[in-house]
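User: structure tokens for this one?
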Amino acid sequence: QVQLVESGGGLVQPGGSLRLSCAASGFTTGIYAMSWDRQAPGRAREWVASNCASGASKDYASSVKGRLTISRDDAKNTVYLQMKRLKPEETGVYYCNAGGRTPWGTYDFDAWGQGTQVTGSS
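Assistant:
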């Protein structure tokens, strides 16, 4: 059974840091590009970052470049999103995605987790 489980969300002060994890099962992460998307309250889901299957290339939304870093440990079938200098408007649910539409092409395989909540506090 294909499954993606995100964790690591929580309450964070503006300018703070958080590390999200996405544990995959039922498939091998190493053969797919992996991505993170997020959805803020009342807004459409937006793409945040992607890491190609080999891990060599990464791509980021312009709004997060330099502050968020995607990485992967295929031996653990896990993908991470390190977030630094978080902004209040980055509150939302963060989703992990395997395959699907990526900067390097579109996979037939497209799996999503249920998301983890990140809330910026003031």
